[in-house]
Amino acid sequence: MPDEATPTTPRTVLVTGASTFLGGYLVARLAANPAIERVLAVDSRVPRKDLMRRMGRAEFLRLDIRRPAIAKAIAGYEVDTVVHAATSIMETAPHSSAIKEFNVVGAMQVCAACQRSPSVKRLILRSTAMVYGASAHDPSHFSEGTPARREPKRGYGRDLLDIEGYVRGLGRRRQDIEVTIVRPQAILGPRINTRMGSYLALPVVPTVIGYQPRLQFLHEEDALAAMEHVTLGSKVGTFNVSGEGVVTLTQAIRRIGHIELPVPSSLLAPITGVFQDLRSAKLRSSQTEYLTYGRVLDTTRMRSELGFAPRFSTLETLDDFIERGGSTAVVEPDSWRSLERRVVAAAHQLQ
Fold first, then answer.
1. Name one GO molecular function term (predicted).
2. What CATH number did the domain enclosing 307 receive?
3. Lower CB count within 10 Å: N or C terminus of the chain?
4. In 3D, which of 154, 129, 317 has the Cα closest to residue 222?
5. Containing domain of residue 61, as a range?
């Protein structure tokens, strides 16, 4: 295994999920790096025209990663670095049996293709913080070695737990392949379409009554920068990635200027669906636990071992989403602060 202190620039990089925000813009960043000889963008869907233009000299291969064609591409182009970012389909699509098949079978094919190809030396997986689940028994901060108290039984979190297992299995079978797993926190930004962004953009935001979940956000630009950093580096292992700081869900809703609607947990997903536009990324019941208990990551390894520091904090990410994301305030933040001051003053008078 190469010395981690002297990383080598990849020669030929293949990125799956090229039609998604994270996969496509990562391809664009890598293609702009003259030190990389060849960048291959893979997806079964053709990226948007503007995204395709940004990819520059990258070569687009239209193929389904669930099919043996991915192995032929990796071997034929003598790929040395594979970035499996196709799991970023979670940005927009509600989970289903078809999506589970795409995620799990696709990852199995990618791992099998890497195992058979002698040219592959690195595999990078875009995982998710959803693998930690969410429950009332969670620690204050999840480190990479902290097991989930209640592992997700369904949805993207379950898919990625299984996929991480396949990727680690590949690392054991091919010890000459460096395996890096990136677990980003909830990604938010003015351009990326995520279910969390769709949820927070609702004028009336249903929340679970009696709970105050703590949240962290990762800016879309920091998510891209982290994946680029990992691709160009040579750090092996699993890394949480998140912006600094924590915000409660109520604070986030008020900062945006929207109205909080506390409801029983069993009604959170149905009522959210009533408010959401048909074109929006839907909130599903699998996220109810997250919006009840929240999730906070320990990012010590990200800074000390990976050597990466996000440019945006959690609050700065939220503010940029508010400023450039097109969300219109229903109640101005100054009105919330004025109301809070009146409530505090009234409480003091009653003492």
1. isomerase activity
2. 3.40.50.720
3. C
4. 317
5. 12-330
